[in-house]
Amino acid sequence: MFLLPALLENNKGGSHAEPGGQRPLCGATKKVTGGPRRPLVIAGLRGGARGYVFSAALPASAVAAAHAALDLLETEGEQRRGDPSGNISYFLHRTRAAGIPLPVECRSGVLPVLIGDERRALETADHCRRHGVMVVPFVWPVCARGAVRLRVNVTARHTRLDIDTAVTRIAAALEATAP
Predict the structure, then answer these.
(1) What is the pLDDT of residues 107-145, one digit of tens each?
(2) Cα torsion for 27, 30, 32, 38, to the nearest 10°?
(3) Which helix (H) or strand (E) segment is 161 a member of?
């Protein structure tokens, strides 16, 4: 609670006196906000109520959304998450068969397609996006020069058709951007 000493002389809104005999400003402030006291009220609010106006607390809508998401994870988490390992294996098999360059050891749902050249990686990613496949180019300074790659995400929710389509379109994009 903040104090506005100049406004507290005749304040009858509170019953508890603060040190020095001042009472905190309580109740309706309508009586003290007008006339010659207005600048004092504004100065008091600027100095003492700033923390209440600009809060770092989450908005209620964000808290409600997070709560709903946690409820959903508790009730449908296993079903929605699934096991992506079958799709990852299938993607690895299909990309290797198509000649798409991948690191030797890949078992993650986030798979790097090795490109090497920065310009080609950006053009390949653009080609893929225009044909409905989302891949993210990782270029310098994220990757070392000459080690540029595309990031592909494979999840449990992808179907075999999704994976086949992605592999076909990535291969076509690599062919279209070949030096």
Answers:
(1) 788 888 888 888 999 999 999 999 999 999 888 888 888
(2) 130
(3) helix 160-176
User: How far is Cα 110 from Cα 141, in angstroms, rounded to an integer?
Assistant: 19
The tokens for 99 are: 């000649």
Q: Give whole-number Cα distances, 35 to 26, 30, 148, in Å.
A: 19, 11, 68
Judge whether 88 and 160 are in contact, CB under 8 Å. no
Q: What is the tally of helices (H) and strands (E) in the chain?
A: 6, 3
Measure CA 156 to chain center.
22
Q: CATH number for the 85-176 domain, one of 3.40.50.10070, 3.30.70.260, 3.30.1220.10, 3.90.1150.10?
A: 3.90.1150.10
Its pTM stands at: 0.55
Tokens of 13: 């809104």
